[in-house]
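ok so I'm stuck.
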Amino acid sequence: MQFPQYPTPRKYNNLPSGYPVCTVVWYKPNGDLVPICFGVVINSERFRYTVTSIKSIKNNGNIIAYECTYHTYGQLMTVILRFDIINHRWMVG
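replied:
not stuck anymore, here's the structure
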């Protein structure tokens, strides 16, 4: 039973570093990648998010780091998505 003075508990929405993510990207004509949305599986539960903006892109040799914002539970959250160029894998940074 839910008591009105206590807020409803939210689902786990913190994205731990190192988790692999599936990512939908848009390719620019010059070959650059732009993440559009991403998904992650945590404790057998799938979470899917749409990227609302990209704050920065950093190229560190074989890894490209995207600092992205997304909406979840009415809040604007920030996540770093890393793309490993050699292994072609996306993960939370």
